[in-house]
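Reopening this ticket.

The earlier resolution said the output was attached, but the attachment link was broken on my side. Pasting everything inline this time so it's all in one place.
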Amino acid sequence: MDNVYLIYGDEEFLIDKEIKNIINKFNSSMENVARYNLDESDVREAIEDACTISMFETNKIVICEKCNFLTGENKKEVNHDIDSLIKYINNPFSDSVLIFVVRNPKLDERKKVVKELKKCSKVIECKTIENYNLNNYISNYFKANNYNGVVNIDENNPIYKVENNILYIKKNGKKDQLTRVLYKINSTIEIDPEVTIIGPYAFDAQTELTQIVIPEGVITIMSGAFYYCPNLIKVEIPKTVTNISNNSFANATSKLEEIIIHNKEKSISGAPWGAVKGMKVVNWVGK
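Inline output:
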């Protein structure tokens, strides 16, 4: 059982979620949770509390917030008893859980106490997920699980939104970029009219997708948007699209027979955008 945790990073939501998960893991009630601000209190006080037998049946949880002494940005004049801390984390009290929280992406790796914490505690890093990394994570997870799973995004998240099992990036409150389809498409799909961008690998490995009509309003189709869609036969692209990346239809799209472009011939560069059968699949129908 892990009795000491070190949680650090710049993603406040993930940090708070990890703390909640630990509390739930040990079935502790809020009455059995103590919090200390280590910008104001000596870490020794938290250690002494952790060493006290709980009045409840569940494990006592002691949360140490503002552990800035573990970073290079400690501005408070608290003289922490580091020796007692190192001694405790090497031999923690079995009936307590001690959590150190650093809301900062960087620890001071030069400090002995940081080295000991990373060696003896359960370390959880909560860093901001960039769009590219998020796409990779989702792609790997859902493909590995045959698109079985759920992604929950807080409704107040300023960047991402999930609706009807589709992940979007928002702009001005609207679903601007279709970032990833989170379910297995059967035959075809209707794209939300708010979308202006089909993101990188948005339909990656959708092996049952056979045809798609992209709605008016979409402007950009990004790299690998329809990567590895082996049963894709027909794509219809509106006149609003002005940019298609070179490999949007690359890899295992040998069944793709027609890309209908409602625009003037050669008005969008890069054709056939990775389609296996080349230019013969591109049909310009615009005036």
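Reporter confirms the inline version is readable. The chain is about 20% helix and 25% strand. Helices lie at 12-25, 43-50, 82-90, 112-120, 131-144.
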